[in-house]
Fold this protein.
Amino acid sequence: MLSISRSGAILLAALLLPAAGAAADDLTVSFKFGSADKCSRKSPELKIGNAPAGTTQFKVRLRDNDKRSWRHGGGTVAADASGVIPAGALTDGYNGPCPPSGSHEYEFLVEALDANGDTLAEGSATQSFP
């Protein structure tokens, strides 16, 4: 007969059970900056994959990882089966990549929201500009 201590049983249970509140999968996010995107108020097209069932909106923001205090805005857009956020859809103060000199690393952060505004999954994609 196999005997497991109480602490061993707790450890085994922790390894076998999924973490409470953990998202099943993260979103996949992809985008491409073009030369016309410099300091533009028109966001590029974003492609979102792996959105969980029940996703009604995507909340998106652009972050400059080299100058995090600079706000680039974003927006919340309706989600559809295509997983595509069209170019120009982000209207909440969106200000595209605009490094003062050299190249900066920019990251689109995306949350999949349900009808109550609760986050179902998150994802991001990073690209240097220019």
Observations:
- The chain has one domain: 24-129.
- Residues 6-16 form the longest helix (11 residues).
- The helical segments are 6-16.
